[in-house]
C-alpha cells in the first residue's frame, strides 16, 4: 500500500524544495554520515535526505572540544543522548543498566570518548566465514585505512595518509598515561611496549593510546565534521534534524518507498519519499525498533502490537551484544589537575577553553586516555582465571592469537559511580571486556516511536564474564599500585573486602616498589570482587548485532549487501549489522561499515569514485 499523504519536508532552512529523494537515511549517526558523505562527494546530483532524531553539532563546543567529553559523561546537556534502562537482572543485583546512544548528527562519533581501538583482523574474518563475502579483514582493513589520516606514527599497510578523520596522540598527555607506560615497562609481566597497538594483528603489548583528535587543531575528528558537513554546500544533500523516524513505508510489492517521522518530540507526523533506496542507520538499539515498527521482525511480537507483517524475521532485535565496562578509580597527588575539573568547575573549564581556542592545546584538547593494552592471558594468567574459564579459552580465544580478553587502560580523571568522589584528584583504570559471552535483545514495547524499548543486556549471565572482570580488576590494581601518581584507592568505588583482608583498600603515601609482592586475595576477597562487579558494572555503550548480517535461516536480518531480507530497496548500515562482537571499542568498526555501505551502494547505483 502506498502512503496516502504527500511528503512535506520544507521545515529545515537547509532543505531543498524536492519532494522525492533518491536515498533516505533513517538516522544520521556515525555510519550514515560516512555513507552519505561519500556518496554525495562522488555524485552531487544524488538527492539524499538524512532524518536524524537529534540536533546539529557543527562547531558546537560541547562536541568539538575533546575535554567536554567529561561533561557529557557526568552531566550531559539535555537531548544529546537517548538513554535506555535495561530490564533488571538478578545477575546484576537486580539492577537495570543504563544503555545509551548519542542523539545528534554524527551519532556516537559526536559525543564519544574518541578512543581509537581497532578490531582484531580475525573478527572480520569470522564475519566473512558466516557467508558474508567481502567482509573479511582483507576487504575491511583497506577501508579502515581509507577513513583516516594517521598523525600518530608512520603511515603503513593499515594506517592511512589521506582519509577524512585525523588520528593522533593529542597535544596533551596525562600523568596517568605516562605513569601507566612507565610502570608497564618495568612491571610488564612478560608483555612489552609497542609503537602501534592498533594494526589489527598485534595483541598483548602496552601502547600509547591514539585518539580521534586532530593534532593540528586540537578538535575532535568525527564523522559529522569530516564526512558530512564538508558536503553541505550541495543543495541535494539535506538533513532534517530533531525528527524521529517512526517507520518505513512500503508499496504493495514490499518496495521501501518512504519514511514516516515525527517533526520534533510528539510533533506532527510527516513523510518523505525515496525512489531508489532507504537505509536504516539508527544504531544497534534503535535500528531494530524502526524495523519492528515497520512490520519487519518476529511475527508474535508484531501481532502483539497490531503491526502488519511485511517480512517475518525473528532475528530482528536479537543477538544484542556490547562490552562490559569495569572502572576502578585511584587517588592521585592532591595538587594534580585532572580532566575531572572540566566537568566539575565551569570557571576552570572556561580557562582551559581559552587556551584551547588560542593554541588547540591543553587539557581541553585531551580525552584523558593515553595508554592501554589489548590484553591476552599467558599460562599463569590462565591459571588465575581458573578452570571455569578454560573452556571459553579453548573454544574461542586459543584459535586466534589476535583476540584479547579485555582492553585495559587508564583515564586521567575520576570515572566512577559517586560524583562526590570526583573532587579529589584521581585517575581511573578501565577494563573493557572484549568478547563477553553475554547476548541479549532489544524490542519495541509499543508502536509509539517515543515509548521506551525493552532491553535485556544479558550482561553477567555467564560466569566466564565475571572471571575476566575479576582477573582484570586484580591485574589493573597491581599496575596502578606501581604508577608514580598512585596515592591509594577511591575506596567507595572498590570492592568491600572482609575485615582484616590483605586486599583492603585505602589511602597510600605513594606507589609500592616495582618488585613488591602482588596482593594475595582469599576466596572471600574474590567473592567481594564478584559482588562488587554485579553491583556496579555497566555496559560500555558499544551496542551491536541486533540486525545481524547472517543467512536468513540463521536468524539473519540483512545479507552481505546489507539488504533486509524479504523486502526491496531497504538496507541497514550501522553497528547493528555486526553478526559477531569485535575485540575493540566500536567506533572504528562503525566507520568501516559506513565505508563498506558506501562502496556497495555506489556499485549498485553505478556511481564511480567512492
Ligand atoms: C558515550 C559513548 C562513548 C563512546 N566512546 C567510544 C570511544 O571512545 N571509542 C570507540 O571506538 N567507540 C566509542 N563509543 C561507541 C561508538 O561511538 C559507536 O559504536 C558508534 O558511534 C555507533 O555508530 P552507529 O552508526 O552504529 O550508530 P550511532 O552513531 O549511534 O548513530 C545512530 C543515530 O541514529 C539516530 N536515531 C536513533 N533512532 C532514531 C530514529 N528513530 N529516528 C531518527 N534518528 C534516530 C541517533 O540519534 C543517532 O544519531 C561510544 C559510544 C557512546 C554512546
UniProtKB/TrEMBL annotation:
Domain of life: Eukaryota
Domain Glucose-methanol-choline oxidoreductase N-terminal positions: 283-297
Keywords, alphabetical: FAD, Flavoprotein
Cofactor(s) this protein requires: FAD
One Pfam family linked to the record: GMC_oxred_N
A GO MF term: flavin adenine dinucleotide binding
Residues that hold FAD according to the record: 112-115, 245, 541-542
PANTHER family: GLUCOSE-METHANOL-CHOLINE GMC OXIDOREDUCTASE, GLUCOSE-METHANOL-CHOLINE OXIDOREDUCTASE N-TERMINAL DOMAIN-CONTAINING PROTEIN
Family: Belongs to the GMC oxidoreductase family.
Protein name: GMC oxidoreductase-domain-containing protein
Naturally occurring in which organism (per UniProt): Mycena rosella (Pink bonnet)
